[in-house]
């Protein structure tokens, strides 16, 4: 797989290193000469150019890329790179870094973004995930289909604890993708029984999140009175 990364700072170089270790081709693009540190990621291709300019992206042969990652520290740049990659070069998968959470609403398919990654949101979500039981935690947003990756740790008082997956009436536009039980990662099967303490990961439409949380969390009649 060929991947172009706009932004050769610490984030871009780190992503490049991981992808190269997994056997992918990587091109790093940055307009700042000081960012071109070939010795730090020697197996990558490097291009000194402005990723917001068509001529630069032509030189990068973006049409040959399977994925483009907009990883600069400037949200405006990341949006422009995403839009050009999708509309001008038809890149199948565009991933964009969100630096300011206030701008997250812009990072959607209208700007060519398939997946938006907000580091502040992800870090806060991981904190919530570590301490929350019975509360739905949004881990990542997928632009296409207005879907999110969400997590909930099943509380002992949940109405569906001890129930087989096939017996649960799940909301539409939701999919249980994995169960984390202790140190095990389980693929959901119809016969699998949901247990208290299970970490459940779903891909769910945003409009269904409240309904999903109501289904999974503490039953209303069992909830403590305020």
UniProtKB/TrEMBL annotation:
Keywords, in A-Z order: Ion transport, NAD, Potassium, Potassium transport, Transport
Record has RNA-binding as a keyword: no
Domain RCK N-terminal, residue spans: 1-117
Limits of the RCK C-terminal domain: 137-218
GO molecular function: potassium ion transmembrane transporter activity
Keyword Ion transport annotated: yes
Gene Ontology cellular-component terms listed: plasma membrane
Protein name: Trk system potassium uptake protein TrkA
